[in-house]
Design brief:
245 residues; 6-stranded antiparallel sheet; 31% helix; globular; Zf-TFIIB domain-containing protein; TF_Znf
Amino acid sequence: MNPLAPTLPACPSCRNPMEVHQLRTHLGLVTELDICFGCQGIWFDPKESQRLAPEAVLQLFELLHRHRDDAHMPLAEQLHCPHCRRTLAHGFDVVRSGRYVTYRCPQQHGRFTTFSSFMIEKGFVRMLTRPEIEDLARRVDAINCSGCGAPVDIRRDHACPFCRAPFSLLDPQAVDQALKRHGANAAAASRGPVARPVGTVDIADALTAIERDRQRALREEKESSPARADLWSAGLELVWQVLVR
């Protein structure tokens, strides 16, 4: 082992080494994000999230989509800073696109955020409408909250009973609007702009079709298990399908 080789930061949850990925900032510089695909989380040094260029978010889409079938682990009850090992403080931040969970270092070394919380923070989601929620409720028994990941009975609750976040969805229209707000009308230069938005009538059909394909093998093995939709994974796939058209 090379003693001069850089040590990869440990994931605040599982403690396994995180992957380091280089992304562009607003100033055209490069920043390094520490990502754990097993825990679906990103470590941000102070102000690092705010410095990301809109093009970098689309690069993240591609990266997350590439790891969409990786095994996912639940977050540990206590998360620890990869720098000082202090316990991260659990909290919530609120932006226009919703409420999202944060885990911050008490020594201000940075914060850990899940993939879905990052997209809520950046405005790349929209709230599901009441008709969409009712349509989904007729098709699935539960969803995983995009804010905290908890399973929610969509037939009974119209918001997450744990973090009180409304049900949100990562979809092409929200992505397109967020990119324009961030000043990136041609952010996806290598792929072309985000294609036509998916209408509200299409959302439930698209989500359930994607989720059905993604979990077909699991349902065949466990026919008696209740159906559960992962809005984050399905929304990521929905956006990706539009981006690559």
